[in-house]
Amino acid sequence: MTTMDKFTEEISHFIGFFHISLENARAREAYTEFAFTKLEGEVEKLPVHTSDFGAPFDLLGFEPDFGYRSPAPGHWHVPTKLADAQLMPANGTIGYEIDEPTLPETFRDAFGSPMKTVLSVSPEIEAPGSIVNHFSQAIALSDDDYFGVGGHGLAFNPELIDDAAVLKGFEEASALSPLGDLARPGTSEDMISVIKTVIEQLEDAPADNDAVQLRISSKSIDGTYVNGELVEEAPKIEDYHSFDEDETEDGEDGESGASNTWISEDGTVAIEVAVEVTTGGNTLINNVVLQNFWTGATVTLVAEDHIEVNAIIQINALWDSDSITSAVTNLTQDAAGNELFNIATFDHLDTANGETPDASGDGGYPAFWVVTEIHGDLMIVNWLEQIIFMSDDDVGILSSSGVTTSVIAGDNFGVNHASVFELGFSYDLIIIGGSIFDANIIHQMNILFDNDLVGATADFQTSGEGSFSSSGNLLWNQARIGTIGDADRFETLTQEQIDTLESFADGEGNIAPDLLSDPAFAGLQGLRVLSISGDLINLQYIRQTNILGDSDQIALAMDAIAPHLDASWSIETGSNTLVNNATIIDLDSVGKTYIGGDQYSQETLFQAELISAHADFSNPNPDALINEAVLFLDDSMLDQDDYPPASDASCMPSEYDGHTGDGVNSMIGH
C-alpha cells in the first residue's frame, strides 16, 4: 500500500467530489425527461380471479381422548352402518348382508342379483406362538494366593482352608428358604408341575425362626419392604457402594501422581517405609431385567382354572468372625461394619382410568371379529439361573524392608447380566379352553465367609501409623415384581361367555351378541380374537446366588537384618460386595379375566438374614496360631539328602511353603 503525500491526497478528494456532482446532475436531467413523457393509449387492467370457498363441517373442538378407529377390513366399501349389518361369521371370515347394490357392475353377474348380496373377506392376524428361554450363567474363580514379602527369613505354613466350610454354610442358608431346588422344566406338563410345587412348598414351609426377618403370604402384596419393614422409598445402592474405578490423579505416563519419595534435608532421597496389603475387596454381581408382554387382552375368558403365584425369596448369610493380633491395636481401626439389605417391591399397575367407555355415536359396539387359533398350549417361559462361586482364601507373611510394599491378593470382579424384553401381540379378546398358570418367582441368596486371621510373630513390633479393616462387607438383595391389575380383576363367567366358549370348543367360533356389547369393547368396530384350545402357561423364574469364601490368614513379622520399627501398615481383609438385582415386569392382562373353574392367587415375600458369631478357629489367640505355623530357615535345612518325612513339619526344607494355592508372591517396591 502506497501512502500519498498531503497535496496529492487533497487533489484526489477534489476530483472525486467533482465526479459525484457531475453524475448527480446527469441523473436529474434524465429523470425530468422521463417523468413528463406521456404514455399513449389505455393500459388494460390485469384480471382478478376469485374462487368460491365453503366450510360445510363444523369443528367440534379438541378431543384429548379420541383414538383412531380403523374401518372394517374388506376389499370394497360397505356403506351400511356396521351396527345395522347382519353378521354371518364362519371361522374367522367376516360376512355382511348388504341391502343396497354397492358392488361394481363387473361383479354383479358373478354374485347374481345385487339385492341381498353377500360379501366375504378373510383378513389374517398373526398368532403369538410359544416362547421358552433357558438362561444359565455361572462364574467360578479360585484365587487362593500365597505370598511372602520382606527379609523375614520365615516360611508361613498354616492349616489350609478349603471350600468345605463355605459349602456347609450354603446348605445352612439354603435350609432357611421355603423353596427347594426346582428342576428346569422341559414340557408343558413339567412347567405346570413346577408351578404347583412352588405353591405347595410356600404353603408348607416350616415355622419362622430367629433368622427370618419377614414372611408374608396373601392374595396381594403392595409396597416396598426393606429387611422386613415396610418403607416409603427403597434405598439406593449408590449410597453404599461405588462401582467406579478408583479416582486417582494420574500423570502423563498413567502412573499415580502421588509419590512415595522425597528429598530430605541432607539432600539424600528418602523413601516412604510402608506395607500395604489387600486380600479382600471382591465384587460379585448378578443382574437380571425381564420384561414380558408377549400376549394380553382387554377381556380374557378361561374355561377352567386360573392359578397365579408371585414370590420373592431373599436370604443374606454372613460369617465374619475375625481373630486379630493385639500388635496392630495402635493402627487406626476402620469402624465400618457389615451392611446387609433385603429389598423387595410388589407393584400392581391399575389400567382402569375410572371412565366408562362411550358406545354412542357411529362407533357403537363391534359387529365383526377376526380369530387366530392355537391348537394346544401356549407357553411363555423364561428360566434364568445365575451363580457366582469365588474362593479368595489368601495366606501371606509380611515384613517391612525399608521400602513401600504393596500386595493386592483380592480385588476380583465377577458379573452375570441378562436383559430380556419380549413384546408380542395384543388382542381384544382371548378365549382359553383350558386353564391359566401364571407364576413370577425371584429367589436370591448371598453367602459370605470372611473369617480372617491376622497374627504376629513373637518379635513383631511397630511404632508407625496405619490402618486396619477386616469387615465393611456389603450384601445386597433387591427384587421387584410388577404386574397389571390386582386380585379383584377376576370374575365368574356369565352365560353368554359360557356359550361363546362352547361355540369355540365345537369349532363354530361364534361370539354371543351380549358379549359383543361388553363395555370394554365400546367404540371398537371389530374384535381381534385369540383362541387357545389348551392351557396358557406363563412362568418367569429367576434364581441368583453369590457364594464367596474370603477367609485370609496373614502373619506380620520383622525384617531379619534391618527391622524398621517406624514402618506404617495398611491391612484390609474385608470390604467385599455381593449384589443380586432382579426385576420382572409381567404385563399378561390389561383388563378383566372371567373364570369358569377355581381361581387361586398367592403372593409371598420371604426375607431372612443369617449372621454367625462363632469363630471357626480352635485357638482364639491369633499370635499363637501364627507362631505354630512359622518355620525358621537356616542352611542346615537345605540339604536335599536329609529330608525328613512330610509329617515332620518342623524340619521342612526352605523350598516347601506348605500351600497349594497360587504362588503369587505379589510385591511391588517403589
Q: What would you say this structure looks like, in words?
A:
The chain is mainly beta. Among the domains are: 82-121, no CATH class; 131-158 and 219-231 and 269-284 and 299-351 and 364-572 and 597-669, no CATH class. The protein is built from seven helices and 37 strands. Strands 8, 9, 13, 17, 18, 22, 26, 27, 28, 32 and 33 form an eleven-stranded mixed sheet that branches. 36% of the residues are buried. The model is unreliable at 72-122, 246-257 and 634-670 (pLDDT under 50).
Beta-strand residue percentage: 35-45%
Number of strands: 37
Shape: flat
Amino-to-carboxy terminus distance: 66 Å
Count of helical regions: 7
Structural category: mainly beta
**Major beta-sheet overview:** 11 strands, mixed
Rounded Rg: 42 Å
- Unreliable segments (pLDDT under 50, ≥5 consecutive)? 72-122, 246-257, 634-670
Mean pLDDT: 79
What is the helical fraction, as a range of percent?
Answer: 10-25%
Please name the defining characteristics of this protein.
disordered C terminus; mainly beta; 37 strands; 670 residues; 11-stranded mixed sheet; 12% helix; single chain; flat
